[in-house]
Specification:
Layout lengths: L16 E2 L10 E6 L2 E5 L16 E3 L8 E6 L12 E4 L6 E3 L15 E6 L7 E5 L5 H12 L4 E8 L5 E7 L10 E6 L5 H14 L5 H5 L1 E6 L37 H16 L4 E5 L7 E5 L2 H6 L4 H9 L11 E2 L13 H6 L2 E6 L7 H22 L2
Parallel strand pairs: 3-5, 12-13, 12-14, 14-17, 15-16
Antiparallel strand pairs: 1-4, 2-3, 4-9, 5-8, 6-7, 6-9, 10-11, 11-13, 15-17
């Protein structure tokens, strides 16, 4: 008997699992193979590509309390392996507990059908949410930006809609007195559905809006696109949109359409280019996740050349001073060859000469608080650099 509520603990059944919610995995199928032990077969990503499975994401709608859980997961051979990153579970979509795969694969695995297992200890509540990294559903992001937009000096723009009808948001943090000093303009965006990168940006926002960030806030305008791939959290599509296209794509021929550019990426690029034509950005940050600590890379552009007396190495050294636990690798320079790049990490620099940051990593940072802290480290380093070197 369950001592808390005198209720008999029932084993979990297939009916207790939902793959169609804020955190979902399209076309996943579940089969019970033993007490609290299930096999999950993942569906295939949409679109015409080399084949890959959706990510494992689901909710347990009831009867979880008092039970543990073992899942044997089968994926589809392809470049987007489902077990690259750790998983997390939560009872309220706020507090998350990390869980590791039994045999996680690397970033690329095309040699075989993927299979792995994951084990959850005894659940404390009946309803459970499970997702990749530290999950951040679209609905939670939408609620956050609307709450922030109610504060003075913050604007929220709907720049368009996704292919499945979800809003694409751009949040703008403005200075209290924009006429008092020359302003620096920054653009931060998460093109993929990579929640650790989104929490990194939220850490930046939290610091900018804190008392400590007031001096930075007074001389900067910051644009944030927290999720440009809003259809993915409920489908398990990760870096792809509903067309099966990688959302990192930049169109070097814009405004002419590019065949390989995803729909939502083009909406965001069109909005970005309209802004560039009026009040150009000084820095552009493309926020992503791969394994290891946060790994920030930069293509130094006009901002370093004309508006600061410092170099990207000065920014690197200042930022390292705020990272006391090794959550971030030292900033390094990205190489740019004589070819045309179709990515948000290179495209803005190639077209406009804007200083471009490609911020990756954090795939092994397993808590929300640590991911928020990486954002605070990066933005504090940027603020101190500006204070010391910006003209």
């Amino acid at each position: 008997m369950n001592k808390d509520n005198s209720k008999t603990i029932r084993e979990l059944s297939e009916r207790d699992f939902c793959f169609d919610g804020p955190l979902g995995s399209k076309d996943a199928a579940i089969t019970k193979i033993g007490p609290n032990h299930f096999k999950v077969e993942l569906g295939e990503l949409p679109g015409d590509h080399d084949g890959a499975s959706n990510q494992l994401q689901f909710s347990i709608t009831g009867n979880a309390k008092g039970n543990n859980l073992a899942l044997d997961v089968c994926g589809i051979r392809g470049r987007a392996a489902f077990n690259v990153y750790f998983m997390s579970y939560s009872y309220d979509l706020e507090t998350w507990y990390p869980v590791q795969w039994r045999k996680p694969t690397g970033m690329q695995n095309t040699s075989r059908e993927l299979r792995d297992s994951i084990y959850f200890s005894t659940f404390a509540q009946d309803k459970v949410y499970v997702g990749s990294q530290v999950p951040f559903p679209f609905e939670q992001m939408e609620s956050l930006v609307k709450d922030l937009a109610a504060r003075p000096g913050i604007d929220l723009h709907v720049i368009g809609k996704s292919m499945l009808g979800k809003n694409l948001y751009r949040l703008v943090i403005n200075p209290e007195n924009p006429e008092s000093t020359p302003l620096t303009r920054h653009y931060f965006a998460s093109q993929h559905c990579e929640p650790n990168a989104q929490h990194r940006m939220i850490g930046m926002i939290n610091w900018i809006l804190s008392p400590e960030g007031k001096a930075f806030r007074d001389r900067n305008i910051c644009h944030f696109c927290l999720l440009l791939n809003p259809d993915s959290p409920s489908k398990g599509w990760y870096i792809f949109n509903s067309e099966g296209k990688d959302m990192q794509r930049w169109n070097p021929d814009s405004p002419a359409p590019a065949e390989d550019q995803p729909y939502e990426s083009k909406v965001a690029q069109d909005d970005f280019e309209k802004l560039m034509s009026k009040e150009p950005f000084d820095t552009v940050w493309s926020m992503h996740t791969w394994q290891g600590p946060v790994e920030n890379m930069v293509i130094p552009g006009k901002w370093f050349e004309t508006k600061t007396s410092g170099t990207w190495r000065d920014l690197r050294n200042i930022t390292l001073g705020y990272d006391r636990r090794g959550l971030c690798k030292p900033l390094r320079e990205m190489e740019v060859a004589d070819k045309v790049y179709r990515s948000w990490g290179h495209g803005p620099f190639q077209k406009y000469g804007v200083t471009s940051f490609g911020c990756e990593g954090a795939g092994t940072i397993c808590t929300k608080e640590d991911n928020l802290e990486t954002g605070r480290i990066l933005i504090r380093g940027l603020a101190e650099f500006q204070k010391k070197f910006e003209k």
